[in-house]
């Protein structure tokens, strides 16, 4: 297992380097002088053309591209990501301000979807071909078919405009800082993310459970007189979770990318909202760096899927599969 882990980790590094190279090339193609997003606007405001050229030389912006790439990569690793072309704020500050908000609703939505989706999928499989199964299957199909933004807009109309139970958007009220003060603002985004993901997870769980319940070893367990509840939970459910857990982890980057829509609907100040604002303002350095962080999330999730697959299925090991 250790050899497999090392092999997957070594494969992770070149993928990350390729992504950084693509981001760097994209930044190089952004219209305008690279110094405009590598130096703070306060400095540029008081500089003459001669001073700008001198700074270009001192910063190494006239160096060959491969040298500039490794210097830029070192800056990324130390938190120096440049400056926004629109606001003039350090991109690292923008990321640090927005990333926690996205992780907050994503992880909570992921937890809600995991608990509800797996529970409903298990119940649907155990009650196969009953009214419970048919009802849950119908709800799952509706959840998959209806887009997330529709759920979000419907939730705003019902719970904010009609019932006035929850705020329609944003992350917190002015002056609020604690997590508990943010809860009313997170309820609808979290539930919308959870509902959209629950439907998919429920279908996968049901399918895996039904397939496992038809295996010979499950029939053998029943023939030994083991209670149906124990057979379903200890034998069927545990083995059915193997493919479900792989799908579960693999959906994490999709959840993070999907917050772009949710944050836009609820005016939630996260990474998705930052990307949309940067695109509309042609602030390409911010777009590139924000995309870089989402790409890292995809790579990390892929790495976790490989490790989880190896842990759950001994056949998937280095030199064995």
What's the gist of this structure?
This protein is mostly helical.
How far apart the termini lie comes to 12 Å
Q: Structural class, from helix and strand content?
A: mainly alpha
Q: What percentage of amino acids are in beta strands?
A: under 5%
Query: What is the element string, with H for helices and E for strands?
Result: HHHHHHHHHHHHHH
> What would the average pLDDT be, to the nearest integer?
78
Main sheet record: none
Tell me the total number of β-strands: 0
Helix content: over 70%
Number of helices: 14
What is the approximate shape?
flat
Describe the protein.
With 321 residues, the chain is an all-alpha fold. 76% of the residues lie in helices and 0% in strands. It is built from 14 helices and no strands. Helix 6 (91-126) packs antiparallel against helix 7 and helix 12 packs across helix 13. The longest helix has 36 residues, at 91-126. The chain is flat, with a radius of gyration of 25 Å. The model has no long low-confidence stretch (mean pLDDT 78).
Topology:
Elements: H1 2-28, H2 35-38, H3 41-45, H4 49-59, H5 65-77, H6 91-126, H7 131-145, H8 148-162, H9 179-213, H10 216-223, H11 228-250, H12 252-265, H13 271-280, H14 284-312
Helix pairs in contact: 1-14, 6-7, 6-9, 6-12, 7-9, 8-9, 9-11, 9-12, 11-14, 12-13, 12-14, 13-14
Question: What are the defining features of this structure?
Answer:
single chain; 321 residues; mainly alpha
């Amino acid at each position: 297992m250790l050899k497999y882990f090392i092999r997957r980790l070594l494969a992770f590094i070149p993928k990350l380097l390729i992504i950084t190279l693509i981001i760097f090339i994209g930044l190089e193609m952004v219209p305008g002088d690279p110094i405009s997003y590598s130096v703070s606007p306060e400095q540029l405001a008081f500089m003459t053309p001669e001073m700008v050229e001198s700074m270009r030389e001192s910063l190494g912006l006239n160096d060959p591209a491969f040298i500039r790439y490794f210097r830029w990569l070192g800056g990324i690793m130390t938190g120096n990501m440049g400056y926004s072309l629109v606001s003039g704020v350090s991109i690292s500050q923008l990321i640090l301000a927005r990333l926690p908000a996205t992780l907050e609703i994503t992880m909570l939505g992921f937890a809600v979807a995991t608990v509800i989706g797996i529970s409903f999928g298990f119940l649907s499989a155990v009650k196969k071909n009953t009214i419970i199964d048919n009802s849950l299957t119908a709800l799952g199909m509706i959840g998959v078919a209806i887009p997330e933004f529709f759920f979000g807009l419907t939730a705003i109309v019902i719970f904010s405009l009609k019932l006035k139970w929850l705020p329609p958007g944003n992350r917190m009220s002015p002056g609020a800082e604690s997590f508990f003060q943010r809860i009313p603002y997170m309820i609808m985004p979290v539930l919308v993310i959870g509902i959209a993901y629950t439907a998919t997870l429920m279908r996968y769980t049901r399918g895996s459970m039904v397939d496992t319940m038809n295996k010979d070893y499950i029939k053998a367990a029943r023939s030994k007189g083991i209670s149906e509840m124990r057979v379903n939970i200890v034998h069927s459910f545990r083995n059915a979770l193997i493919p479900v857990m792989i799908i579960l982890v693999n959906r994490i980057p999709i959840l993070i990318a999907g917050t772009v829509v949710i944050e836009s609907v609820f005016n939630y100040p996260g990474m998705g909202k930052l990307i949309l604002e940067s695109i509309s303002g042609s602030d390409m350095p911010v777009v590139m760096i924000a995309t870089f962080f989402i790409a890292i999330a995809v790579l990390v999730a892929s790495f976790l899927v490989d490790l989880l697959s190896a842990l759950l299925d001994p056949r998937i090991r280095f030199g064995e599969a």
